[in-house]
Amino acid sequence: MSHDLIPIVLFLCLTYSFTFAVKTVVEARMRSLLAKNGVSDDLLRSMLAGEQQQRRFSSLRWGLALVAVGIGFGLIQAWGWTDITPGAVAVLAGAVGLGQLAFFVISTKFMPSN
Q: d(Cα 58, Cα 55) in Å, to the nearest integer?
């Protein structure tokens, strides 16, 4: 069964890599066109600042989600559960949900007001 997963995982990795590469090229092309067409410096600066903040919030979201999943796995281990049960899945889903809620609270606290 594990040898059946290899082509699937390979396909998913290649698809993700291709999508990331296309996104990067399109964003770089858009920035160069905006810079060449004489868009104001303030607009370019605000776009870059917005993208930087979005990357930071994305890192925060992933960090909180992974810490929450780690805590969930730690709880499952501490309780001695060795099988995949609905309770174990619920602990992991609840941990991810709490991580996302923590991200929401933190991001709204530090989000600049318009």
A: 5
